[in-house]
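Researcher: Here's a chain I'd like modeled. Treat it as a single chain, no partners, no ligands.
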Amino acid sequence: MTLQSTTLAQRTDSEIAAEVKARILWDIWINGDMVKVDVFGGKVTLTGVVGSAIAKSRASDDGWVNGSRRWTAVGLESILGHTTIPAAS
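Model: Modeled as a single isolated chain. Structure tokens:
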């Protein structure tokens, strides 16, 4: 009896970015046109403007997809409630 090890193929950054962007665009709490998705080495970074702290939290949740290693919404700004977290330098 031979056991074969099967692993999922690693997803490319563009595949991850496309899925995250699609999730954000379909999320009714977020204006997806105002959020930019960048992926480098499996790390998802979201930047832009959202309408509330809840929308910011949901966008962050949408950034977690199969294949992403880390994600951050540090560059997202909430215009209601004036919640601003500056982007990391």
